[in-house]
Amino acid sequence: MSAQPDHALPATAAPAPTAAAQLLEALRADRRAVRWVPAFEADWARALEDSRHSYSLTPLHDVVRAWQARVAAAPAVDAFIASGYDDSDGVALEDVLPPRGAR
What we know:
Layout: H1 19-29, H2 33-54, H3 58-83, H4 93-96
């Protein structure tokens, strides 16, 4: 019996070394900067502390990937909100995404 998973997760390339700085620059230029910049900085600080303890860059890469996805999805979310569509039949994000740190 093996403790290995029966399927392999797809390997994702590590973000570029400058990805976090570029992302923070984009967040500061966004109209949501008042909310997003402090949230990104808090996520980054937690990931940096996790990385220091684990000697792994994975927590930092996860923060960059998550925030890149948020920024990429923002125009679609804005369009959805502006359209006036009813979202009462939606699915909670917690039901779709794994908990933080579980990736």
